[in-house]
Specification:
heterotrimer, A alpha+beta (382), B mainly alpha (534), C alpha+beta (188), A: 382 residues, alpha+beta, Helix Hairpins, 11 helices, elongated, B: 534 residues, mainly alpha, Cytochrome C Oxidase, Chain A, 2 domains, 66% helix, 0% strand
Chain lengths: 382, 534, 188
C-alpha cells in the first residue's frame, strides 16, 4: 500500500511540474471581480465573508489544535471535569449571531441593488434551447427589421475528441456572440423553449435560470468593452457542457453600427431566400451547419448512436421523399431528441442542411431543395 | 457462546441464538443481524457509488472527451448521487441505529422487529431496479440526483418510471426504519434512562427519524406527481397545462433540505460519543447539544429555497431564505464549539476513531464555512451550480457524514466482533483517506470560483490543473477504502480480544455488555445505577 | 407482561406515525394549490391571474402616469407556428383598457391545438396586468394553413407599484394537440 501511495505522489508531483511549465491562467483561485458595479460589489461581499470565515477558522482551529498538542495523555495531561458553563455557551451563541448580522447588512444592500427596477435602454430576450442560445433584440420601432440569432458552440468536434489541439477558448466560443453596448443599462428577458437552462457570465455576476413558459429578468451595465464568456449553469441534458455564452461589449457607437448592419443582413437573408442556391454552395454550407448542430448526436460519419440517435447514412428519412427530410428538419420529431430547426436556422441554412444530409455519408439522392421552397414550407398557408 | 446460554436460562420467549445459513439473514428479526446487513449493504453501495464517481473523475482527468459519452456521464453523476445518498449514507446510519440504539438505551431489541426485517430487505430490490436502468434501452436516469422537471419528465429516458418506483421503495424503507427508531426510543428505554440521559447518538437519531417521517412522504408525493405527468397527462410541472417547473424545485427541496440534515445529524451523535471517550472527559454542554440539534432540524424546514436563489424569486423571498439559512450557523457553531471545549483540557489519545472524529470536526467546519458563504444570496449567484457547491456539499458529506461513519465503524467494531482491529492499518486508512479527500475536494473550491459549472463532462482549458489534482485525489481516496474492507475482514476473523469496555474512556450501556455483544442483550433491563448522565 | 404492554404501545405509536406519514404525503399534494395561492398573492413565478370582469376595468384612470407594456411571443420547441404580436410595445395609462392582437398561423398540414401561457416580468407586476379577454383563456385549434388574429384586452392596475415603469408580457405557445379535447372532436 505504501509503495502505491509513493507511486501516486511521484506521479502527482512530476506531472504537476510539467504542467506549471506551460502555465496559462490555469491556477485561478478566486472569482473574477468582473466589469459591472454589481459584480464588484458581489466580489467584495464574497471576500468580506471569506475573511470572516478565515478569522473564525483561526480561532476555532487554533483552540482545537492547541488542545490536541498540549492536552494529550502521552504528555501526562489529566482530564478536567468541567462539562458545562451557561455563561460561555451564551457567549458563543450570541457572538456568531452578531457576526451574522454584520454579514447580513452588506449582503442585503448588494441584493437590493441587484433588484434595481429603473428603466433600461436596451432589452434583449435570451432563450435557452437544447443546446444553444437564442438572442432577440427588442426594437422600439415596430417596423424595424428584427435582429435575432442563435448562438451555438463554435469549438470543433475534433478538438473535443482530442484529435486536434485545443484552441485557447476551447468550449467557450460561439458562432454568433451576443453583442451589447457598454455603459448602457441592458435588460435581459429570459426563458427557455424546452428544459431549464441557466444563463451565466461570471464577469457580470449574473446567473439566472431560464424556465420554459416563464419569463425571468436580469440587467447589466458593463463598464468596459471587451469579450466576456460564460456557460450554461443548469443541467439541461446531454450537451449541457457544450452551450457556452460569449458576449461582445462594444462602445455604444460601435454597437449602433453593428446593430444597423445586422438589420441590413436580416433584409439580405430575405432577399437571398428568393435567390437560387447551387449544389456546391449548399453542400459547403450544409457541412458547416452539420458540424455545429447535428454532429453531437448523429456523429461525424452520419452513423448516429442508435437507438437514441439514429443513423442518417442510408436512413429512409434522409434518402426518401425530400418532403419528409424537410419536415423532420423544420418540425423535429416530437418525443425524441430531434429538435425543430424551423426557427433556429434561416431558410438558406435549412435548404443547405437538408441538401447536405441527402447527399453526404454515402447518401446519393442527388436532389436538393431551394431556400424559397423551405420558406414556403415554413410559413405555409399565409 | 456462553452468553447465549445465559440468555437461554433467562428468557422463554426467544430461546434461540442465530439460525443457521442464509435463512438467518433472510428472516432475521434480530436488531444486531439487521444492523449488520444494513452496514454491509451500505458499504457495497459505497463502493458502487464510488466506482461511478471514479468514472466521472477519470473523464474529468483531462479536458476533452476520453472515456464516456456525455449522456453516459450524466447517468454517472445521477447514479453516483442517488446511490451515495440513498444507498450508502442513509442505510449506514440506519444500520448503526439498529445495532447501537437498543444497546445504548438498554432495550432487548428494536420495537418492531418484523418491520425491521422488511425495511432492510426491500432495499436491495430498490437498488437492483435502479441500477438496472443503466442497461436499459435509452439508458438510465440522466437528469441529476435532483431530477429537475421537465428534464426528468417530458424529456426523460423511458427508464424514469423504474427510477420512480425505486425511489418509492427506498422511501418506504426509510419511513419504516424511522418509525421503528421512534418507537424504540420512546417505548423501549430501560427504567432510569430518561430522555435527557440518552446518549446524543440516540437523541440525534430520534430527531432524524422525525425528519424522515416529515419529508420522505413529500418525496414520494413528488415522484408520484412526476409519474402522473409522464403517464397520465397531468400537468403538475408542465407549463403547457398550467403547471410550473419551479414548483418541482420547491417541493423537491422541501424534502431535500431536511434530507441534508438527515445525513448529518446522526453523524453529530457519533462524534459526540467518540470525542469524550478519547478525551477522557465528559461531553461539554450536553443540553445545548440536544437543543442545537432540535433547532437545526426546525430550521431545516424553512430554508429550502436557498437551493433556488437563481430561479427568480421576489426580493422579499430571497432575503427571508438568506436570513433563515444564515441562522443555521448559530446552532451548528454551538456544536462545533462544544466539541472543541470537550477536547480542551482533556487527556487525549488518537486511535483511529478519534482521528476520524477530529478530521470530521475540522473538515465539516470547513464545509460549514462555505455553507455560510453560499447562504449570502448575491454571492450565491456566482457560486450556484458551480464546483464551489460541489466542493461544499462533498466537504459536509464525505469528510463529514462518511468520516463519521468510518469513525463509528472503528469505534464499535471491537464491540461487534469481539476483537480489536489492526490499529496500524486503521491509521493508514485514515491518513490516506484524509490526504485523498482533501486533494479531491479542496481544489474544487477554486474550480467553482474560477467559473466551472457542475455536471459537465468536459471543460475549458483554464480548469485543467485543478481537475487533474482532484482526479488524482479521487483515485487515492477511492482505493484507500479497500483498506477499510481489509481491516473489517481481519477484525472479524480474529485479533486481540476486546474487553467489554474496549476503550479506556468509554461510557454508556453498550460498553457494559461483553464483546462481542451477545445475540440477545438486555433481556432484563440493566441496573439503573449503570445509567449515568452523559 | 411488561413486554406485552410495550408491544401494544409500539403498535399504537407505529399506527400514529403511519398517520403522520400519510398526512405528510397529502401535505405534499396540498402544497401544489398552496403554491398557486402564494404565487397569486406575491407574483412569485410571474404567472398572471385569470379573467377579470369588465366592471373592474376603467373605473379609475390615472391620467398623469404612463407605463410601457412590451409584448413578446415565444414557442416551445416542438410548436413550429408563426406567432407574433401586432405591436412590440405601447405606452398606457394605468386603468385604461387596450386591445392587442397576436397573429398566429399554422403552416403544417394537419390540425394543431396550441395553448398560450402568459408570464409577466418583473414578477412584482404580474398581479397588476389584468386581462379582460385573452386567447390564453382557451385552447387555440388551428386548421392546416389557417391564420388567426387573436385578441387580448387588458388594463394595467392603477395599484401597480410606482417604481415599475415597464412591464413585459410574454406568451409561450405549447403544442397540446395530443391532450386536447378539441382535436379529438375535430378528428372524429
Amino acid at each position: 500500500m505504501l509503495s502505491k501511495a509513493k507511486l501516486w505522489l511521484s506521479l502527482a508531483f512530476g506531472t504537476l511540474l510539467m504542467w506549471s511549465a506551460g502555465a496559462h491562467a490555469a491556477w485561478e483561485l478566486n472569482m473574477p471581480r468582473g466589469v459591472t458595479q454589481i459584480s464588484r460589489e458581489t466580489y467584495d461581499l464574497h471576500m468580506t465573508i471569506f475573511w470572516w470565515m478565515i478569522a473564525i477558522g483561526v480561532v476555532v482551529f487554533g483552540v482545537l489544535f492547541w488542545s490536541i498538542i498540549n492536552h494529550r495523555k502521552s504528555k501526562g495531561a489529566k482530564p478536567a471535569t468541567f462539562h458545562e458553563s451557561t455563561k460561555v455557551e451564551i457567549v458563543w451563541t450570541l457572538v456568531p449571531f452578531l457576526i451574522l448580522i454584520a454579514m447580513a447588512i452588506p449582503a442585503t444592500r448588494v441584493l437590493t441593488a441587484a433588484y434595481d427596477a429603473s428603466e433600461s435602454e436596451l432589452d434583449v430576450q435570451i432563450i435557452g434551447y437544447q443546446w444553444r442560445w437564442e438572442y432577440r433584440y427588442m426594437d422600439d420601432d415596430p417596423n424595424a427589421e428584427e435582429v435575432s440569432f442563435f448562438s451555438s458552440l463554435a469549438t470543433s468536434r475534433e478538438e473535443i475528441s482530442n484529435s486536434i489541439d485545443k484552441g485557447e477558448n476551447y468550449l467557450l466560443e460561439v458562432d454568433n456572440p451576443l453583442v451589447i453596448p457598454s455603459n448602457t443599462k441592458v435588460r435581459f428577458l429570459m426563458t427557455a423553449a424546452d428544459v431549464l437552462h441557466a444563463w451565466w457570465v461570471p464577469e457580470f455576476a449574473i446567473k439566472k435560470d431560464t424556465i420554459p413558459g416563464f419569463i425571468n429578468e436580469s440587467w447589466v451595465i458593463v463598464e468596459e468593452p471587451g469579450i466576456y464568456r460564460g456557460q450554461c449553469a443548469e443541467l439541461c441534458g446531454m450537451e449541457h457542457g457544450f452551450m457556452p455564452i460569449e458576449v461582445h461589449v462594444l462602445e455604444p457607437a460601435d454597437f449602433e453600427a453593428w446593430y444597423a448592419e445586422q438589420q441590413q443582413q436580416a433584409l439580405q437573408v430575405a432577399e437571398l431566400t428568393n435567390a437560387a442556391l447551387s449544389m456546391d454552395e449548399a453542400m459547403a454550407e450544409g457541412a458547416e451547419i452539420y458540424s455545429r448542430n447535428c454532429v453531437a448526436c448523429h456523429q461525424a460519419n452520419g452513423q448516429g448512436m442508435p437507438p437514441a440517435f439514429p443513423a442518417l447514412a442510408g436512413s429512409a428519412k434522409a434518402t426518401g421523399d425530400i418532403g419528409v427530410t424537410m419536415d423532420t428538419l423544420v418540425n423535429g420529431v416530437p418525443g425524441t431528441a430531434m429538435a425543430a430547426y424551423g426557427r433556429q436556422l434561416n431558410p438558406i441554412e435549412l435548404a443547405s442542411i437538408i441538401t447536405y444530409v441527402r447527399n453526404a455519408f454515402g447518401n446519393q439522392s442527388g436532389d436538393m431543395v431551394q431556400p424559397a421552397e423551405v420558406n414556403e414550407f415554413i410559413v405555409g398557408g399565409q | 457462546m456462553s452468553s447465549a446460554a445465559i440468555d437461554h436460562a433467562h428468557d422463554h420467549d426467544h430461546h434461540h441464538g442465530p439460525a443457521k445459513g442464509i435463512s438467518r439473514w433472510l428472516f432475521t428479526t434480530n436488531h444486531k443481524d439487521i444492523g449488520t446487513l444494513y452496514l454491509w449493504f451500505s458499504f457495497a453501495m459505497f463502493l458502487l457509488g464510488g466506482t461511478f464517481a471514479l468514472v466521472i473523475r477519470a473523464e474529468l482527468f483531462q479536458p476533452g472527451l476520453q472515456f464516456v459519452e456525455p449522456n453516459f456521464f450524466n447517468q454517472m453523476t445521477t447514479m453516483h448521487g442517488l446511490v451515495m445518498v440513498f444507498g450508502a449514507v442513509m442505510p449506514a446510519f440506519v444500520g448503526l441505529a439498529n445495532w447501537m440504539i437498543p444497546l445504548m438505551i438498554g432495550a432487548p431489541d428494536m420495537a418492531l422487529p418484523r418491520m425491521n426485517n422488511w425495511s432492510f430487505w426491500i432495499l436491495p430490490f430498490a437498488f437492483t431496479l435502479m441500477v438496472s436502468t443503466l442497461f436499459m434501452e435509452g439508458g438510465g436516469p440522466n437528469f441529476g440526483w435532483t431530477f429537475y422537471a421537465p428534464l426528468s419528465t417530458t424529456y426523460a429516458p423511458d427508464s424514469v418510471t423504474y427510477f420512480i418506483f425505486a425511489v418509492h421503495i427506498m422511501g418506504a424503507s426509510s419511513i419504516m426504519g424511522a418509525i421503528n427508531v421512534i418507537a424504540t426510543i420512546l417505548n423501549m428505554r430501560a427504567p432510569g434512562m430518561t430522555l435527557m440521559k440518552m446518549p446524543l447518538f440516540v437523541w440525534t437519531w430520534l430527531i432524524t427519524a422525525y425528519l424522515l417521517i416529515a419529508v420522505m412522504p413529500v418525496l414520494a408525493g413528488v415522484v408520484t406527481m412526476m409519474l402522473f405527468d409522464i403517464h397520465f397527462g397531468t400537468s403538475f410541472f408542465n407549463a403547457a397545462g398550467g403547471g410550473d417547473p419551479v414548483l418541482f424545485q420547491h417541493l423537491f427541496w422541501f424534502f431535500g433540505h431536511p434530507e441534508v440534515y438527515i445525513m448529518i445529524l446522526p453523524a453529530f451523535g457519533i462524534v459526540s460519543a467518540i470525542i469524550p471517550t478519547f478525551a477522557r472527559k465528559r461531553l461539554f454542554g450536553y443540553d445545548s447539544m440536544v437543543y442545537a440539534t432540535a433547532s437545526i432540524a426546525f430550521l431545516s424546514f424553512i430554508v429550502w429555497a436557498h437551493h433556488m436563489f437563481t430561479v427568480g424569486m421576489p426580493l422579499a423571498g430571497q432575503l427571508f431564505f438568506m436570513y433563515a439559512t444564515m441562522l443555521i450557523a448559530v446552532p451548528t457553531g454551538v456544536k462545533v464549539f462544544n466539541w472543541v471545549a470537550t477536547m480542551f483540557r482533556g487527556a487525549m489519545t488518537f486511535e483511529t476513531p478519534m482521528l476520524f472524529a477530529i478530521a470530521f470536526v475540522v473538515l465539516f467546519t470547513i464545509g460549514g464555512f462555505t455553507g455560510v458563504m453560499l447562504a449570502i444570496t448575491p454571492a450565491d449567484f456566482q457560486y450556484h451550480d458551480t464546483y464551489f457547491v460541489v466542493a461544499h456539499f462533498h466537504y459536509v458529506l464525505v469528510p463529514g457524514a462518511v468520516f463519521s461513519l468510518m469513525a463509528a465503524a472503528y469505534y464499535w467494531l471491537p464491540k461487534w466482533t469481539g476483537y480489536m482491529y489492526d490499529e496500524t492499518l486503521g491509521k493508514l486508512h485514515f491518513w490516506m483517506s484524509f490526504v485523498g479527500v482533501n486533494l479531491l475536494f479542496f481544489p474544487q473550491h477554486f474550480l467553482g470560483l474560477a467559473g466551472m459549472p457542475r455536471r459537465i463532462p468536459d471543460y475549458a482549458l483554464q480548469f485543467a490543473n485543478f481537475n487533474w489534482i482532484s482526479s488524482v485525489g479521487a483515485f487515492l481516496f477511492g482505493f484507500s477504502q479497500l483498506i477499510l474492507l481489509l481491516v473489517v475482514i481481519k477484525c472479524i476473523r480474529g485479533g486481540k480480544k476486546a474487553t467489554a469496555q474496549v476503550w479506556e474512556g468509554a461510557q454508556g450501556l453498550e460498553w457494559t455488555v461483553p464483546s462481542p455483544a451477545p445475540y440477545h442483550t438486555f433481556e432484563t433491563p440493566p441496573d439503573p445505577s449503570l445509567i449515568k448522565a452523559q | 407482561m411488561t413486554k406485552n404492554v410495550a408491544k401494544g404501545n409500539n403498535k399504537k405509536l407505529a399506527v400514529k406515525l403511519l398517520f403522520a406519514v400519510v398526512g405528510m404525503f397529502a401535505f405534499g399534494f396540498a402544497l401544489v394549490p398552496l403554491y398557486d395561492v402564494i404565487c397569486d398573492i406575491t407574483g412569485l413565478n410571474g404567472k398572471t391571474g385569470g379573467r377579470v370582469e369588465v366592471a373592474e376595468a376603467g373605473q379609475l384612470i390615472e391620467e398623469d402616469r404612463e407605463v410601457t407594456v412590451q409584448f413578446i411571443a415565444h414557442q416551445n420547441v416542438e410548436m413550429g407556428w408563426e406567432f407574433k404580436p401586432s405591436v412590440n410595445q405601447m405606452r398606457v395609462k394605468p386603468g385604461e383598457v387596450h386591445v392587442v392582437h397576436y397573429r398566429v398561423s399554422n403552416p403544417r398540414d394537419t390540425l394543431m391545438v396550441g395553448q398560450a401561457i402568459p408570464s409577466v416580468a418583473p414578477n412584482a407586476a404580474a398581479g397588476h396586468l389584468n386581462k379582460i379577454e385573452c386567447f390564453c383563456f382557451a385552447e387555440q385549434p388551428l386548421q392546416a394553413g389557417e391564420t388567426v388574429d387573436m385578441a387580448l384586452r387588458f388594463f394595467v392596475d392603477p395599484r401597480l407599484p410606482e417604481e415599475i415603469t415597464k412591464l413585459t408580457l410574454s406568451y409561450t405557445l405549447y403544442d397540446i394537440t395530443e391532450k386536447s379535447k378539441t382535436a379529438a372532436v375535430a378528428s372524429r
